[in-house]
Design brief:
The chain is α/β, with parallel strands linked by helices. It folds into two domains: about 120 residues, Periplasmic binding protein-like II (D-Maltodextrin-Binding Protein, domain 2, 3-Layer(aba) Sandwich), CATH 3.40.190; about 100 residues, D-Maltodextrin-Binding Protein, domain 2 (3-Layer(aba) Sandwich), CATH 3.40.190. Strands 1, 2, 3, 4, 5, 6, 7, 8, 9 and 10 form a ten-stranded mixed beta sheet that branches. Helix 2 packs across helix 9 and helix 2 packs antiparallel against helix 10.
């Protein structure tokens, strides 16, 4: 074997050991305090978990920030590789590949502390106008009740609009993720206003958030590698650590 052949053989062997998706993975992201934001360190705890999970298996991440709906469509169209922060639904499973759960969340009903409010079933909500955000799903039971007009849901483009209505007495309850809700309050409202608001302990839904991939052969390999890196990060205790830090900062 001559020197050139030997060098070629070594290089071939080295690159054959690299993951198939070793080039950077391009992931869409959006504004979802306290876990995702282009203004947060590491782009937020959720983004950090994804970045470090990929880094664990030798893959770099390139982030792009878009409105959530557009970011998802860019993945469906295979213009971007993946998108962070999605709840698994049968409709989405037809369009994208889902990772193992990245982190979890609880969705609740917010109300003023001065308002006496309790609920047990969806039927208990019929008497209220419920504030919600456009294009969000709140679980099959809630969504079905809305479609069947069993409950009155008033949707607005931005979450902070619902909090303003709550504070102004224009509605009594609104639905959102508990951690994101308090983080949004801290970002947009004064401490004396935040102190007027609480949430009911019973959740509307408890969910897992996933990384979703466009349906390509390369992304099938990336999905396997990401889940491996995510498992490593979880075993190191870093996922719980990052989520706790984000939740503590949102209080």
């Amino acid at each position: 074997m001559n020197i050139k052949t030997g060098i070629f053989t070594i290089l071939f062997f080295f690159f054959s050991l690299c993951p198939a998706g070793a080039e950077p993975v391009r992931i869409t992201n959006g504004e979802w305090l306290p876990y995702h934001s282009k203004t947060l360190p590491h782009f937020g705890a959720g983004s950090r978990i994804v970045t470090e999970s990929f880094n664990n298996v030798g893959i770099d991440v390139e982030w792009g920030f878009f409105p959530w709906k557009r970011g998802y469509k860019l993945v469906v169209k295979k213009e971007w590789d993946a998108s962070i922060g999605w709840i698994r639904t049968p409709e989405r499973e037809k369009e994208v590949l889902f990772s193992d759960p990245v982190y979890g969340g609880k969705w609740v009903l917010f109300h003023l502390k001065s308002v006496v409010f309790d609920w047990n079933t969806i039927d208990d909500l019929k008497q209220f106008r419920i504030g919600a955000t456009a294009n969000y799903s709140y679980g099959k039971q809630f969504d079905d009740a809305e479609k069947q007009k069993l409950i009155k849901v008033e949707r607005v483009p931005r979450l902070e609009q619902n909090f303003s209505k709550l504070l102004g007495g224009r509605m009594k309850i609104m639905v959102h993720a508990v951690d994101s809700g308090y983080a949004t309050l801290r970002a947009h409202f004064e401490p004396h206003e935040i102190d007027l608001i609480t949430h009911h302990p019973k959740p509307i839904q408890v969910v897992d958030y996933h990384l979703v991939f466009s349906k390509t052969e390369q992304n099938k390999e990336r999905l396997i590698l990401f889940n491996k890196g995510l498992k490593q990060l979880r075993e190191m205790g870093k996922i719980d650590k990052y989520i706790k830090e984000a939740w503590d900062q949102s209080k």
